[in-house]
């Protein structure tokens, strides 16, 4: 399996509860390396553009409000099979369904406020990384 990059967000519910380090440790323990990272506070419009794929879903407005409610940490994670590995470490979208030991099982508060985002495929990883980072900011 080739070295791969994926995009990750530590969401507002987690940054507010001072869980940034605990969540990064989960990624690092799984063999993923942080090759870019920044803490930023999105506007609702920026959150809406990022999550545009969900704009017809009933939870879209609430999701955009939430993502703009406090700072996030945007990151690029690198490793073998990084896209799938990140999804595995994150756990299921709904923390009630997330496997024990996953980030969402341990930290998520609800299906909406679920602590992390992770790209779901190579194409989305590429688009999402480019939305937040320039090539110069990917430093290995
Ligand atoms: O984040 P993930 O890829 O696991 O799930 P998604 O289906 O792509 O949904 C994106 C985000 O929308 C989730 O992580 C939740 O924050 C939110 N969501 C929600 O608020 N209510 C739902 N029923 C499903 C998703
Ligand atoms: Mg998704």
Overview of this protein structure:
The chain is of the alpha+beta class. Helices cover about 40% and strands about 20% of the residues. The protein is built from seven helices and four strands, in the order βααβααβααβα. The chain has helices at about 10-15, 20-30, 45-50, 60-65, 80-90, 105, 120-130; strands at about 5-10, 35-40, 70-80, 115-120. Strands 2-3-1-4 form a four-stranded antiparallel beta sheet, sandwiched between helices. α3 (about 45-50) packs across α4. The radius of gyration is 14 Å and the shape is globular. The structure holds cytidine-5'-diphosphate and magnesium ion. Cytidine-5'-diphosphate (CDP) binds near residues 93 and 114. It is an enzyme of class 2 (transferase). It is found in: Cytoplasm.
Question: Which secondary structure elements does this structure contain, and how are they paired or packed?
Answer:
Elements: E1 3-10, H1 12-16, H2 20-29, E2 33-40, H3 44-50, H4 60-67, E3 72-80, H5 82-90, H6 103-107, E4 116-118, H7 122-132
The chain binds cytidine-5'-diphosphate and magnesium ion (MG).
The site of cytidine-5'-diphosphate has 9 residues, from loops.
């Amino acid at each position: 399996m080739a070295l791969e990059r994926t995009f990750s967000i530590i969401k507002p519910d987690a940054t507010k509860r001072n869980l940034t380090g605990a969540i990064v440790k989960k990624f690092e323990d799984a063999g993923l390396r942080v090759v870019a990272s920044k803490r930023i506070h999105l506007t609702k419009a920026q959150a809406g553009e990022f999550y545009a794929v969900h704009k017809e879903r009933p939870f879209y407005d609430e999701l955009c409000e939430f993502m703009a409610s406090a700072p996030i940490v945007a990151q690029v994670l690198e490793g073998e099979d990084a896209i799938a590995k990140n999804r595995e470490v994150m756990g299921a979208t709904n923390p009630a369904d997330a496997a024990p030991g996953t980030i969402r099982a341990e930290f998520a508060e609800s299906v909406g406020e679920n602590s992390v985002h992770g790209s779901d495929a190579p194409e989305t990883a590429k688009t999402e990384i480019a939305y937040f980072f320039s090539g110069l900011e990917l430093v290995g």
